[in-house]
Amino acid sequence: MKNGKDTRAEFLRVADTLFCQKGYDATSIQDILDLTHGSKGGFYHYFASKDELLYTICSMRADTARALADDALSRQSAPLSRVNTILHYANPLRREEIRFTTMLIPLLDRADGLAVRVVYQEALNRVFREILQNEIDAGYQDGTFFPCAPDLAYPVLTLGHACWLEASHQLMEAQRKTVRCDYGTLQNILSRYRRSIEHLLDAPYGSVTLIELADWGALAESLGLPGF
Q1: Is there a single domain that holds both residue 108 and residue 183?
Q2: Angle at 158 between CA 156 and CA 159, to 5 degrees
């Protein structure tokens, strides 16, 4: 017999899989119960709603991204490389998240998607803010950065979030119109946020990496869009 922790984890595992396979809207709580052999009472003991289930999955994915970042950081020493690594893993548009992101960004782009946007961003801030600030401080100590103010991790992460959300919106606009996603527009979005972060950190021009265009291209393809 499963204990409570195992039952909750099974609901989350199955829901994550179904959301990615079928889409969030097309997955019902009954679909999740059918595969977990759980009861509605058991489900609602752990989650108030399907929305809360998604919020929990977003938080878990942020934790997983942090673990991946920690592993990558263990092989790096230069503050600039370490900052870019953190920004990479704080970005949900990276290719290793493509199945989840393909499901998620249509929700984020809807008027009722505000709650999940906020939950996901707060989860990413929770896991990355402290380590990013540590790397910014280290870069200041070795002369890589000359930050314009203390405690810049939160503004930097906020710009990073704004970048991937705006890029996602452009992809969804192209999907709605069934047109090719404009490469130049995505380049402009990336350049604007990258330069803003470089300005905050007083980092060398072109040194900050937010989103690889190859990641955008992979996501566009996953959304059924023509290539760049």
Answers
A1: yes
A2: 65
pLDDT in tens, 71-95: 999 999 999 999 999 999 999 999 9
Helices 213-222 and 153-177, axial angle in degrees (round to 10):
40
Task: Find tokens 């290719």 and name the residue.
Answer: 95
Q: How many angstroms separate the CA atoms of 56 and 60, rounded?
A: 6
Please tell me the pTM assigned to this model. Answer: 0.92
Q: Which residues contact 52 (CB under 8 A, 6 or more apart)?
A: none
Instruction: Specify the number of domains making up the chain.
Output: 2
Beta-carbon count within 10 A of 128 CB: 23
Tell me the backbone φ, ψ of residue 53, rounded to 5 degrees: -60, -45
Cα separation, 140 vs 157, in Å, equals 18
Above 60 in pLDDT, residue 2? no
Burial (CB < 10 A; 0-12, 13-18, 19+), residue 49, is: exposed
| Structural domain for 205, as ranges | 50-222
Is residue 140 a part of any domain in this protein?
yes
